[in-house]
Amino acid sequence: MNNNDFEARLRALEYYHNLKLLPGAWTVLRVDGRGFSTFTATRFAKPFDERMSAFMTETARALLEEFGGVYAYTESDEISVLFPPSWTLFDRELEKLVSLSAGFASATFSLACGARATFDSRVWLGVKEQDVVDYFRWRQADAARCALNGLAYWTLRQEGKSVAEATRILEGQTVAFKNELLFERGVNFNEVPAWQRRGVGVYWETYEKDGFNPVTNEVVKATRRRVKIDTDLPMKDAYDAFLRRLLDDVM
Ligand SMILES: Nc1nc2c(ncn2[C@@H]2O[C@H](COP(=O)(O)OP(=O)(O)OP(=O)(O)O)[C@@H](O)[C@H]2O)c(=O)[nH]1
Ligand SMILES: [Mg+2]
């Protein structure tokens, strides 16, 4: 076998390397903390910790900037970053995008937190704008469900209930039951901080900046963009409208 055949045979066994994102599709990379139920147990307040949320938001922002995203959304230990159909980073190679987003998220979070944490990553593809809106509605609904469950569970645990008791009380129960359980203890779920119930959005906003033109000696307005951290996201239909505006700005 000559050297070229040898090289080609072995390179062909990089079996998934030719996989690329579907042309023209919206892409979401979603990273998720590995084993964060354990990782957070001794490090962060339950069920919500402002430092943990700040580290996740910082990681979301870094992913948005580094990979050229349009919108990043974080809740719990996950971050979804949206990329436009025209996105061409790494020639849309799946392995590159998945491995580097996981590596980058792991490094950013670990540096912020001061302990080694790892993230996995996966790709979601949407061919229609409505798919993208539905995707982020889906993740936000997950945030709301987990927040209600987590608050109800840790309220019971703080009252002295065991893991088994708290789990049994909540098992199969309705949203109304969990809301009522909190309300009886003086907590109105609708007044819990929005970032805990709805997650945090990270996106670009434009603003006007005064600049000085040395040629004409005039003050001129320049349009710049900066990252906005939104801890008070709209929900339901208002979130749809908010997302559609973001998508329309891209197209
Ligand atoms: N204490 C604390 N835990 C948090 C916070 N945010 C997220 N978590 C934890 O993160 C976990 C995320 O759940 P999963 O991603 O389903 O579980 P995981 O243990 O990370 O498992 P894998 O993702 O499958 O590796 C939850 O169980 C929470 O315990 C927080 O603010 N405080
Ligand atoms: Mg996880």
**Second rung of CATH, namely the architecture:** 2-Layer Sandwich
**Which percent range describes the beta-strand content?**
15-25%
Strand order of the largest sheet: 4-1-3-2-5-6
> Mean pLDDT, nearest integer?
96
Main pleated sheet = 6 strands, antiparallel
CA gyration radius, whole angstroms: 22 Å
Class from secondary-structure proportions: alpha+beta
The residue fraction in helices comes out at 40-55%
CATH class group: Alpha Beta
Number of domains: 1
List low-pLDDT spans.
Answer: none
Query: What is the global morphology?
Result: globular
Q: How many β-strands, per DSSP?
A: 6
Q: Please report the number of helical segments.
A: 9
CATH superfamily: tRNA(His) guanylyltransferase (Thg1)
Present as ligands are: guanosine-5'-triphosphate, magnesium ion
- CATH topology heading: Alpha-Beta Plaits
The ordered H/E elements are HEHHEEHEHHHHEEH
Q: What distance separates the N and C termini?
A: 51 Å
